[in-house]
Amino acid sequence: MSREDETRELTDADRHLLDFIRSLEGKSLEQLESAAKQIITLVTSLLGLFLGILAFKDDPTYLAYWDVKLLAGLALLTFLAALFFALGVVLPREYHVSDLNSMRLALTAMLRRKRDALRAATLAFGLAVTLVFLLALDILLRM
């Protein structure tokens, strides 16, 4: 009989670890959705800043440059992508479960979908912020 086949009583440390892991698993959905809501808030706030940069003065001459237009367009698209990915995390989806096994599979699918959408939202948000920074720097260098 190999060492892997042996069973033993759970120690207090084992029970503590199991409880901790169960607690993490139970809070995962809430944490994913909370992070997505934070990205939604940041995107909507930074969109206001972004549009303010573009309309810095009455007749911005820097909007005549193709690189300013390109950076602005890419930033806007990536902000919108971040917003849509983050909304994909928080919008409810229908899951049909009939037994414990299908509940486990549904939970795994739900966590995977939300995690992947949040990862995409985070990447898009980071790219959008970088583009806005480059845009602001480009505009400042032209003034």
Class inferred from helices and paired strands? mainly alpha
| Cα Rg | 23 Å
Tally of DSSP β-strands:
0
- Series of H and E elements: HHH
Q: Indicate the overall shape.
A: elongated
Number of helices: 3
What low-confidence regions span 5 or more consecutive residues with pLDDT below 50?
Answer: none
How far apart are the first and last residues' alpha carbons, in Å? Answer: 78 Å
For the sheet with most strands, the description reads:
none
Average pLDDT confidence is 85
Percent of residues in beta strands? Answer: under 5%
| Secondary structure: helix percent | over 70%
What does this protein structure show overall?
The protein is an all-alpha fold and about 140 residues long. It has three helices and no strands. Helix 1 runs antiparallel to helix 2 (about 65-90), helix 1 (about 10-55) packs parallel to helix 3 and helix 2 runs antiparallel to helix 3 (about 100-140). It is elongated, with a radius of gyration of 23 Å. The termini are far apart.
Q: Can you give keywords for this protein?
A:
143 residues, mainly alpha, 78% helix
Write the layout of secondary structure elements.
Layout: H1 12-54, H2 66-90, H3 100-142
Summarize this entry quickly.
With about 140 residues, the chain is mostly helical.
